[in-house]
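BUG: 3D viewer hangs when loading the predicted structure for this chain

Environment: internal workstation, default settings.
Expected: structure renders.
Actual: progress bar stalls at 90%.

Input used:
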Amino acid sequence: MVPVQVLSIQSSVAYGHVGNSAAVFPLQRLGHEVWPVNTVHFSNHTGYGAWRGPLLDPADVREVIAGIDDRGALAGVDAVLSGYQGDPAVGAVILEAVARVKELNPDAIYCCDPVMGDVGRGMFVRPGIPEFMRDTVVPAADILTPNHFELDFLAGVTTRTMAEVLAAVDVVRARGPRNVLVTSVIVEGTAPGSLDVVAVSDTKGAWAVTTPLLPITPNGCGDLTAALYLGHLLSWNWSVPTALERATSSVFAVLEATIAIGTREIQLVEAQEMIATPPSTFTARELR
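Structure tokens produced before the viewer hung:
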């Protein structure tokens, strides 16, 4: 594995694991250097219905990134990672950081988890955010990690078959991202009690992993998945099937540990060995 340096611009919570609190430790356990820049610092994730702490001013987020640049460190960034963007002003700061990093290191990439909504919940972000993600953020991304619901919105379609999912991914990829990971895919033909995770690359083809559908939907799972997929892509020379297999195997192990303990917070520490050394739980199959 090749260690890389990741600038992760996301939310942060003191209790639990979402945003940077879900992404930084797993990437570190893979051996990567991570520089977290927080966009909020809450007591806990908003899924509890109540929380405390500040939503950081976009100007303050920009200042933190500028301070890193003052040290001459942005030139060493291999990847920028972002997740939930609750305000277009924060999104603009992230895109400024991506542009600056790529100016200093043209080989750097931007991985965006376009957090907007999910099946059964619909859109849970502020009005205007989905359109901002679709029209402004997605074209700037090199790697995109939407769930099935978010993919359909970004492509402007409703997908019911795997062929339609792949076509929707191609629509999104035509706007900029060269690598797309789609989580929580359930279509016609999906085996009962299971779901697919699909990865499509401009050079490595299209691949899928089928996993059991566990009776748990904890906050932070998408943040964890995006971080691990990015980390493994960078470590394994952009091997899509390898990154897909290792990321899904680790996430599944974390969810199993979470169920065993009986908590709503994903158990990153308990399952950390399964993150550092992913089990060979799932095998990717080539779709095309």
